[in-house]
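Q: Structure tokens for this one, please.
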Amino acid sequence: MPMDSVARFLAALNPEDRQTVDAEPRDEQERLAAAWETELEADAELDTLDELSPPAAEAEAARRVLDRRGG
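A: Here is the predicted structure, written as tokens:
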């Protein structure tokens, strides 16, 4: 795998959230990254955004995952 999903998820976060998630245990990071991957795959709106700007779609999915988490 060229870049694991945790690293990709962290890269999609804004700097403040990245620092917060990076401080979490690895299993929590993996859980959040899996939720992020699911969000990217499941949301048709993100598919459209992904065609225009993949980084924007990844950042939006990351924001949604953290919003659902409450942080």
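A few notes: Residues 5-70 form one domain. The CA atoms of residues 24 and 30 lie 10 Å apart.
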